[in-house]
Structures are given as C-alpha cells and as structure tokens.
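User: Hi! I'm working on a homework problem where we have to compare a predicted structure to a textbook description. Could you give me the structure for the chain below?
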Amino acid sequence: MRWDIDGARVPHRDWSRFVEAGGIRWHVQLAGPEDAPPLLLIHGTGATTHSFAGLAPLLADRFRLIIPDLPGHGFTQKLNAPDPDNVAKAVAALLAVLRAEPAIILGHSVGAAIAFTTTAKRLVQPRALVSLGGALLPFAGVGKVYPGLAKALFVNPFMPAFFSFTTRFQSMPDLLKRWTGSHSTREQVAYYERLFRNPTHTGGALALMAHWDLDAIERSIAGVHCPVLLLHGERDKTVPPATSVTVAHRLTQHGTPVEHHGLPGLGHLAHEEAPERHAELVTGFARARGILA
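Assistant: Happy to help. Predicted structure tokens:
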C-alpha cells in the first residue's frame, strides 16, 4: 500500500493504521493519550484524514483521536451501496474493532450527517456531537436532483476518470473558492488537487453522493438527544449557513441541548481555515458538558 496519492504525502503518517472492519480495509489515524476521552472525526465528501491536519494536533493532547478515511476515499476500500445506513453501520463496525466508544463524534459536511445517522440509529452512543458545516437538510430547490445527478455520473464507468482529467485544466484554487467560499492555503489546495486527479478517489466520492438520501438524513435529527455543537462558516457556499440555524431550532424543539455558532469570514472548509478557533470551541463545549475536566 502506497503512502501517497499521486505524490501527495499523507499528513501525520505516523498516526496511520490499516484496520479490517465491516468487510473493508480502512485507513485510520489514531493519536492522543489512550486514556483520554475518544473523539471520532469524520471528514466530508471528497476529502480524507488530511482535512483535519491542522485541527487534530490541537486536540490530540486532550482526546484520543480516531480519524478514518471514509469508504472509497483516500486509502479506505470502497463500500458497496454506500447509503447513510450502510456507511453508519460500517463506521460502527470500525469502532467495534478498535474497541472505542466515542465520547464525541465530530463530522464535517456529510461527515456530520454520518454522525447524526450513527447516533440516531443507536449504533453508537456518544455523549455529544459536533457538526462543522453539516449537510443535514435537503438543499433548497435541489430536492433529490443532487444525488440523482451524482448517480448518473457514477454509473458511467468513464466518469470518475473524466472528472479527474478535467480538473487538470481548471484552477483548483479558483474551484475550491467557488465551491466552498473558503480561502485555502497553497498546501491545502495542492492536496485537494491531487485527490481530485485520482480516479479511484473521485469514484469513491461520486459513489457516496449517488447513494445519499438527504431526506433520511433530515429525519435523523429527531433521533439525536445528546448535546450538539453546531459550527458553520458564514461564507459557506456548499451548505447554506441557514441549515445550521434550522437544525438548531429543530433540536431545541425536541428538547436536545444545542449550541450554535456562525463563524464570520469563513467558508465550508472553516475548520481548515481556522483550526485554532475550532479547537477552542470544541474544547470549551466538551468542558461545559463534563467530558473534559
């Protein structure tokens, strides 16, 4: 197994392990004291563990970090029919093999949807959830077109390679900024550029999108009863910031303790832009909930 993707070195490679769970081989990074509260970090569609490269070291002295590549992403093998239920079950299987029960699950974008689904179905019972720009509601005016479009691309075996090929002729800094509203560093852009030029990785991202059910994710909100921290960049162009406002309102209606922060000047990759601010908010939330002393 290569430790790079088209020449891009894996951040914190000394944390990396390969684990067989749920019928697939996972790439997962483990860091922090073994007796610290476990914190599971789940990246969004199209990313890998690298998305937490800046945030993770700021949390590793207080938490036992568990950071996997999602199925079909990075170095983790693909999962047949990666719909919300199957991905949630696969994540739970990984945690079972690692013998880890997360005190907190933190998810970015679709990673937040996985966190909500896993918790709502009682596959894992964390003490709290953290959502970073969570894709938790159907996009206004999109309905089921978004996963339908992804499925149309995914079923064509040439599309992952074509998608990867076309990114070579576009400016990745411009694409990222237009898609996310975030201002990424040169190093962050270079890693995403190499990922999206890899047909296996783009195929995994398209597969996840193609099998996603936004309505099912929305229904999971009612099944979450542990405290929730919602963080959302106010310049997010991928998931509307109003999404977290709506989710906060619904959670409050259900009696779920919730804390919401809009983050001025930050986009969909807010945790990559301002890892220190996110570490401060996550740590403060964990202390307020008695997870950290």
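For your comparison, note the following. The radius of gyration is 17 Å. Residues 141-146, 152-156 have pLDDT under 50 and may be disordered. Good luck with the assignment!
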